[in-house]
Amino acid sequence: MPVERSLNHHFYDLHKEGSVTNCCVKQDALLHSLRYVQKQLDFPHLLDITAIDYSQSSETHESAIAVVYIFRNSDYTQVMIVKSYLDADNPTVDSIISLYPIADWLERETFDQYGVVFKGHPNLKRVLNHHEFKGHPLRKSYPITRGQACFTVEDLLPELQARLLDRGVLTQKEDGTIDAGERDLMYLNLGPSHPASHGTIRTFVALEGETIVGAVSEIGYLHRGFEKSCENHTYNQIIPYTDRLNYCSSLTNNVAFAKTVEEMLGITLPERAIFIRVLLTELSRIIDHLICLGANLVDMGALTNFWYLYNPREEAYTFLSKLTGARLTNSFMRIGGMAHDLY
Predict the structure, then answer these.
(1) Smaller CB count within 10 Å for the chain: N or C?
(2) What span, in angstroms and rounded, lies between the C-alpha atoms of 187 and 274?
(3) pTM of the entire predicted model
(4) pLDDT tens for residues 155-186?
């Protein structure tokens, strides 16, 4: 079957613009069609899975919610975006972990934030919001001002034991009890604020002597709902949020967001503005690499090298402070340019 005809056999609403192909697939044919994307069309890299809530959209859509998959081909020259409209009352679709193992985390995020259920997922539980959270925050119906506190620690033992059972570290008896046999296991929490972890991640480990034989993690402390907060802000008001997505290179995030909006609006920047953005983005990239390398060296016990790497980073920060008025979260970009010219 020719490629074009085969594409139409699997997908509908198919259109291509430059290196990006957009298409839709029926909900019940998703797994079969994405297998075709991976094997026949040579798109082995899954970049992201997300969803779109159309419930308050003025446009006409097949359903109130759609799940979206973004792929890249083997030589990184083409992007394919596949959308599937789901039953609004029962947004359920097959898991694609069997095709793309990285979908494990991505499907959990989409379930957590939008309520899309992925059939066949081995551990479909919240990953960004805490375990007591009710509802799905990126649904349009979820109120922006609603805050939810967590009052109890999540028990990660069942999840860890299930992993140890799969690996043969533990065995399950006929009466359902779990047995470690002659193995002497100790369970230990690392974090959520541990000096050996960069961030507030909590890792629950099973130790046999000094060997970690199993581990599960919880990162629910980290998500602060930037996406939801952006729903009632103007484009320029969102820029300070982008600083905080990666404060080691905040200007890069400024540029990425501003450029996305500018492309949507058809805005072309003057050459001087493009030049300044490239200069600042490269400087931002360098200081991000310096802190990344420095932090890795600290983990390896080389603290002195960490401070050596901070010297050129400090020079860059001095320049950025004078230019933007801030060291860390610069908020310097604007839609259509920057806050002001170079000094």
Answers:
(1) C
(2) 53
(3) 0.84
(4) 999 999 999 999 999 998 888 888 888 889 99
